[in-house]
Amino acid sequence: MSNWKEYYNSRLCSAQEAIQIIKPGDHVVFSHCIAEPQVMIDALIENAESFHDVTIHHMNTIGKGEYAKPEYKDNFHFDGWFLSPSTRACVSQGYGDVTVNHYYQATEFLKRGYFPDDVLIAMVSPPNEKGYVSCGVSVDYTRPAFDYAKRIIAQVNEHMPVTYGDTMVHVSKIDRFVEASQPLPELPPPHLGDAELAIGENCASLIPDGATISLGVGSIPDAVCYSLKNKKDLGVFSDMFSDGVVELYKDGVITNKYCTTDPDVMTVSFVMGTKKLYDFVDKNPVVRFKSAEYCNHPYMIAQQSQMCIVNSSVGVDLMGQIVSASIGEFQLSGVGGQPSLTRGATMSKDRKGKGIIAMASSVPDFSGKLVSKITPFIDHGAEVSMTREDANYVVTENGIAYLKGKSLEDRSRELINIADPRFKDELIEEFERRYRTKFKVHK
Q: Quick check: pTM over 0.70?
């Protein structure tokens, strides 16, 4: 389109004008996580009385999630593909919902119409000289949603980095443009205590030189990054990463030398962290953004050299069932990419992949009472995010449990050995009741 500027200017409007293309009964999709278009969401809330029975979909948000509050339940119905702190209550209280899925399936679900996409509201960079905007820090399901949405509103944000890979969209695909400056949300660096550092060291001991890594975000992934500083020639193929990966790259630990499907680059679906991270990915050819269907599909994970996945969980029972998305019946989040990444790693073509669940051995519960994350049974109503057959490594500050190929009795021993010592007696009691034998470690 040679006259793209004319097209762009003819569809440039205010946020209040743009949201008028949303009709009663529409399904509205927001771009993901750090790229959530908060200025547009604020306009929806300010004009909530104009909307009725509008369903809102997205995955993780670090936004306010006001559309999920009870006072707006007649205007907006939240049906998340993942839950976050601001959206959990509407599900537990019965006026919101969650549609469970594997992260990599989001593109397929959009294509097949399982995920309705009447209106996409996305945050993008300003257009370049050819009339293309970038999806920036979140490509995941966001870029594919442009291909399937019936109507598209773009919040054009000068703070959105321009990123490389499958990130670009021509302005001719977009129906309304709202120029609204919005600094990207930042996550404060997590505190690394003794337990996190010990978990990081245990995980790092499983990751060899030349490995391809996927670590996620939070205190434990950051602790793993800290413990990887003496490794060599690591590569990144991940659904997401944060600031810790940037430091490893700058220190020469990450070289992407042995990356297989995407040589010499870090491949990722979205990022979240601080402005340092967002500046790092801006116009950086070393970072290639791809859809979740690419970065998170077990088939693609299985192609990578020495693929090592580190994820966290709510807990694990003595059989090795991993619970990551709920606490009993209370839906906490979603499985995201965890099962897909782990399955891909453990079926890797080079037979050197590792799926690692890393967690503190105990945590305070909602009431402040200390509870073990290794338990005899999963809680009633809890979602099994990974079956016992999928479980590979479980790591705590107390050590490493390797579960693949182990009998139920032996994997129970492995897990008890890395549990918080304050809970071992009750775990051993259950072990001896269940297996009708005395607890002892097999060397």
A: yes
